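Continuing from yesterday's entry. The apo prediction looked reasonable, so today I'm repeating it with flavin mononucleotide included to see how the binding region is handled. Same sequence as before; SMILES copied from the compound registry.
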Amino acid sequence: MCRSYEDRPIERSVLLDVIDVASRSPSAGKTQGLHVLELTGSDRDRYWNITLPEERREGFAWPGLLRAPTLLIPFGDPQAYVERYSEPDKSRTGLGVGPEAWTTPYWLVDASMATMALLLAATEHGLGTLLFGMFAHEDAVRAAFSVPEHFVAVGVVAIGYPDGATPRRGRSANRPRRRADEILATPDRWSHDMCGD
Ligand SMILES: Cc1cc2nc3c(=O)[nH]c(=O)nc-3n(C[C@H](O)[C@H](O)[C@H](O)COP(=O)(O)O)c2cc1C
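Holo prediction written out below.
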């Protein structure tokens, strides 16, 4: 994750390629209910004015983050999935009834995978990225940019050319990375855990 940027804009063809790569990630029923809000120039400034007003910037640890020329906000559209799963080849799943019928919200699964592909494609182009949350500002951001009410946000992606500065690392980044053998679980391991072994 990159937290300090040049103010150089991203070439249009590069940004479109990054989004094109994102569009190739897996999508349930090939629904492709992904929408990516692009904020540049005055829209980008408006985002920061809402979430980090001028008077709170002084002590902000990552002033170079605000130079990122573009903010991308990926959204999943639950309604698109409900409609797709109402079509004849999917209706037997029962998922066309409404979003509440889904045990896993595939609109968020798909949009999250597309976001990861986007981050990797950006890196291939020499760009840096930071995925961060909107937290308490989400309602204000949605209202400011007329986001359709039913869209679900993955987070915000700052994207641009890294300026090479090494600002303080995010607090979370200092947490140790879990090893692959800690992450891989077998049913055997879980049944032992449940027995208290
Ligand atoms: C859902 C999500 C929310 C995040 N929110 C923030 C955030 O609000 N601020 C921030 O600086 N980083 C945020 N991050 C970035 C993580 O801190 C970062 O990916 C993690 O520390 C690993 O950093 P590294 O990739 O540089 O090792 C977020 C990441 C995810 C996946």
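Comparison notes:
- The chain has one domain: 12-194.
- Strands lie at 34-40, 70-76, 128-132, 152-153, 156-160.
Will overlay with the apo model tomorrow.
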